[in-house]
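Sequence in, structure out. Go.
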Amino acid sequence: MNLQFVADGLLAGSMIGLGAIGVTLTYSILRFSNFAHGDFMAWGAYATLAVVGAIGAMFGKIAPIAPLSFGWPLIVALIIGMAATGLLALALDMVLFARLRAKGQAIIVVMASFGASMALRSLLEFIFTSRPTYFSRAIQIAMPIGFGIRITLDQIALLLLTAVLVLGVHLLMTRTQTGRSMQALSQNAALARIVGIDVAKVVRVTWIIGGGLACVAGVMIGILIQIRPFMGFEMLLPMFAAAILGGIGSVPGAVLGGLIIGLAEAGAVQLIGAEWRAAISFIILMAVLFVRPIGLFGVGER
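Output:
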């Protein structure tokens, strides 16, 4: 029995889930669908790549951390890239989204995010061209682990990183005052303001977390596949499907939704052909909206 699609689906689902966390938090707290979120993934990947290049220019060629395909420059660059992408998301909100939210028409903000998405993507293409690029061209030999599944050490490391980040965000949301404020604002914005929650701080934290996790997802795609300006746009539908499937506002739900979407897409490729991969997210999204609009872990606004 060949279950390689399970490993492929878990990897794809991890990337989708990390991106979906930002989507679900943005929608639940700010009440709009941010179509520019996928482009944060691309900007994060390119920012990380630029820092890796800068470190290489300063210190010369640095050997990877055996047995991985990358070394400490990528780890340092990822941290800087997360911070830079979080600041990019925050700056975009301050310059554009916050001003439009004040006018009280959500559809205007949604359309603005669509325009911002195209602008960010075009700017990336202008700066870096549309040619694919890579963090490393080293070839890793996948190890067999049974049932026809083969996996590389890079993939294992990225799955572990995903688990650590998801656990960290979950603890932030459930064990800290900031996290509880975020949950309160997502459940009832008017009441949260009445009881004195610092809404501006919650909004800032939301953008920074969403941008940082989008950067990690983009870097994962860059390590496992390649980096392109359109990489985030292509992940947009799966991320929204995962966020809605898991339940808007639920971090574990977004990750579980991402894993389900990833496994479904990988299974579709194996069973009925790669041409159906893009349709799977849409089919699941429609099914959830018809059967259970609040998602697996969603709650109605109180």
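Check: Residues 43 and 85 are 7 Å apart (CA to CA). The longest helix spans residues 72-101.
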